[in-house]
Amino acid sequence: MKRIIPLFVATLTSFFVLAGLIWPVSLGGYLNIVLDWAIIVGAMALLVAIAHLFLAQWRKIARGNRSSFYSLVFVIVFLLSLGGGLVMGVDDPEYRLWISSIQKPLEVSLLGLAAVVMAGAGVQFYRTRGWSPLTVAFGVSALVFLVIDLGFLQVLNSPPVNAIIKTLQMLPLIGARGLLIGMSFGALIVALKALTGEGVGND
Amino acid sequence: MIALSFNDIIAVAIAILTILALFVSWLVSRSKVRSEMRAIEAVSAVEAFQHEAAEKGKRLLFGLGDGLTPQAASVNALAGLGIWRETSARAVFNDQPAQAITGEGSLALLSQMVLRGVYQDAVAVELFKTEQAQLGGLSAAAGAAGLLPEVNQPSNAAVILIGNHSPIASLAANLAGRKNLPLAAISDTLTAQSAFLISAPLSTQGEDYYAAQTAFKLQSKAGLQLRALDILRALTVLALLIGAVLKLTGVIP
User: Fold this and answer.
1) What is the predicted pLDDT for the residue at B61?
2) Does the pLDDT at position B34 exceed 80?
3) CA–CA gap between residue B20 and residue B83 (Å, rounded)
4) Beta carbons of B40 and B208 less than 8 angstroms apart
5) What is the spatial distance between Cα B138 and Cα B147, in angstroms, rounded to a whole number?
6) Which of A53, A154, B196, B245 has its CA 20 to 30 A from that of B173?
7) Any chain A CB within 8 A of the CB of B206?
């Protein structure tokens, strides 16, 4: 019974949301209320998850692990950010500048690192996967699109070359579209299963 | 009476087609045995990793990604929870239980709830710890930054990246490779799929992500989704080919 009630509520809610999307005029008002509830529950979930994260780091400090220094940094920075947000308000331009001045360089550094790592992985790709039609096609297409994106060929301003480039530039779009169609079918099946409470670890 | 737009009609038609495909696969599954199911290499590897982890007394590390953020709420992130459930259920009494890191708050709580259910089923709630499913960070970059120190732990037997990941997760794949840890990368985003193709030895492409959970369970009922996906894949290819021919011959303007 403990399991059936949440499952029933979840399934009923999902069918209601679906009905609200199909009949927006009749159920649109109620749908907004349900979506507001979802946002409140989501926000609460976020708060609880952050509290868990904080407590986990706190326990690491208490245990005095080798990595507890990083946990200490996390706890101090977290409390500073939280205190700043509470005192100055999250919409305060100074506070936003403070947070983004730390966050953005870190994220950009990670992205830069990811780019370097992927460039290295691109070379190692042949060592790990060997020579196959897939790897050869990958290498050739990567080279072709690198050359095209450099823009040197476009400078020639030759109509046949431009036509070839235009056709080639459509290929990734076609491939992505094919993959996305397949993925939308997959998402639809997962969604149908989720509607009935399956597929999210309940089955 | 509400007038449906052309897009709505197409959407309804696709939904009906999917339900029909599921129905056809159900009919087929009644007369076929489970061994006929298509295997997905990256998913089969997860099963092998599990045995290896149990033998070595080490843990499996899951990167569940993000994807339930208010900006991009998606059912896709939930697809990984099924494998998380199955794997952690088999590791309840292992020396080291499975560990999950998520990049989003709601997903972290859901993975904890799923895990608690697993321990309840095993009548071992006292062994459940919330730290087994942790929040790594609140953005793709922060989530990856939270995942990296966990990949670096010596207690890992293998790393499984499953869910809505960004290409930054390739850093975790690279780190796992440097530490000689087996890795399976199963993601729904095209950019992450391409990043994993070159950085992870085992990864899935396209819609195989959605079949991962059912392929992992290897039950005849679970095979429905795989068969339905195969039917829809064949129908899509056929429709695209017919569309291309009609376009080339000028039938479709």
Assistant:
1) 92
2) no
3) 26
4) yes
5) 12
6) A53
7) yes
- Residues A19-47 pLDDT 10s: 777 777 777 788 888 888 888 888 888 88
Count chain A–chain B contacts defined by CB atoms under 8 A: 159
ipTM: 0.73
Asked if B134 lies within 8 A of A113 by C-beta distance, the reply is no
- Give every strand in the sheet of B133-135, ordered side by side: B133-135, B99-102, B59-65, B156-164, B183-187, B202-203
Higher-pLDDT residue of B60 and A31 is B60
B84 CB neighbours in chain A (<8 A) are: 201
A189 reaches B (C-beta below 8 A): yes
- pLDDT tens figures, B117-162: 899 888 888 888 888 888 888 888 888 888 888 898 888 999 999 8
Q: Pick the residue from chain A with its C-alpha nearest to B101.
A: A53
Q: In angstroms, rounded to a whole number, what is the distance separating the alpha carbons of residues A140 and B251?
A: 34
Question: Å from A152 to nearest chain B CA?
Answer: 26
Q: Which residues of chain A are within 8 Å of residue B100 when distances are taken between CB atoms?
A: none
Among chain A residues, the shortest Cα distance to B197 is held by A125
Sequence ranges of the domains in chain B: 38-217
B38-217 is classed CATH 3.40.50: yes
| Chain B residues within an 8 Å CB radius of A51 | none
The confidence band for A168, taking pLDDT boundaries of 50, 70 and 90, is confident
CB B15 within 8 A of CB A182: no
In the prediction, which pLDDT does B159 show?
Answer: 92
